[in-house]
Amino acid sequence: MKRGYLKKIVHNAILLGLFIIPLSAAAQEMTREERIKALEKLKMEEEKMEMNTMELASQNYSIEVEKLQLPPLSVFLDAVTENATVKRAQSQVEQVKNQYRLEKRNWWNYFRLNGNYGYGRYNVISNASDTFTQVYQTTTSNAQHNFNVGASVGVSVGDLINRPIKLKDYRYQIEQLKYVQEEVMEERRLKVLEAYNAVTEQLATIKAKAETAALYNAQMKISENNFIQGSIDIISLSLERARRTGAVTSYEQSRVQLHNSIVLLEMLTNIKVINNK
Q1: Mean pLDDT over all residues of the chain?
Q2: Which of 69, 133, 231, 233 has a beta carbon 3.0–4.6 Å from 27's, enabling a disulfide?
């Protein structure tokens, strides 16, 4: 984008130079009408060059610098926590914390509760006899409820000995992941700070360049009038126009750089700075 942009400017400048050289040879012999015609031709060439420059520099970069208000730095730094990379680090910390809680509750596995319940009709057959009676069988039948409840404790010696080490290992993992989270947030804050400083610096620069371009525009009108009156030659006029074109081009390039820096800041923080209406 920038390389093609510069090539276009150089090409237009060469065309303007080729047009100026023949005119400068006969500058001293020009009449007022000839000066006006030469000025009109210069303006036409310059308008074509500026139109191409504006199209290249201003396409998709419409920023109203005067109305642009940048929120405080703290707003962008606070928004770092909403970044996906930071959220992932936070999620990893919470995941290990949950595993640590489960490990602390594993001692409940040492206890066992058991119980059973049964209901049914039971038949009991028995043999009986006495001195005067032969052996005979008797049957009794009734419905019964049977249940039992119990508890037991089973402790693995290895688990009991290694339990403090396992808990300490989880605490170390949580601590390390917190450090990783802080590193991610710090790195993100540094990127946001660099982007914010770049936007702030470019805002100050572009306002100065806008004032410079405005001054050259005013000076250009004076120089054009002096050229028509014959006070200056076409070479001096061309130099003034070249300075003005350089100032305008520099201003447009600064607008492009400012737009790119603002977009980067928005991507890092998800905070809109440019309101596209």
Answers
A1: 75
A2: 233
Residue 250 CB-density burial (10 A; 0-12 exposed, 13-18 middle, 19+ buried):
middle
273 phi and psi angles, rounded to 5 deg: -110, -40
For 105-233, where are the alpha helices, taking DSSP H only? 157-229
134-191, pLDDT tens digit by residue? 766 667 767 777 777 887 777 777 777 888 888 899 999 999 999 998 998 899 999 9
Distances (CA, A) of 68 to 75, 189, 224: 16, 23, 34
56 found inside a domain: yes
pLDDT digits (tens, 9 = 90+) for 17-38: 444 444 444 444 566 666 666 6
Kindly state whether residue 136 falls inside one of the protein's structural domains: no
Give the separation between CA 43 and CA 272, rounded to whole angstroms: 40
For residue 11, the SS3 value is helix
Which of these, 54, 53, 51, 23, lies nearest to 39 by C-alpha position?
23
114 domain-assigned: no
Residue 262 sits in which domain range?
2-87+179-269
Q: State pLDDT tens for residues 206-216.
A: 888 888 888 88
Residue 7 included in any domain = yes
**Ordered DSSP codes for 41-70:** HHHHHHHHHHHHHHHHHHTT----GGG--P
What pLDDT is stored for residue 98 in this prediction?
Answer: 92
State how far the Cα of 168 lies from the Cα of 135, in Å rounded to an integer: 75
Q: What's the number of domains the chain is made of?
A: 1
Owner of token pair 């305008």: 248
Question: Is the sign of the CA dihedral 265, 268, 273, 276 positive or negative?
Answer: positive
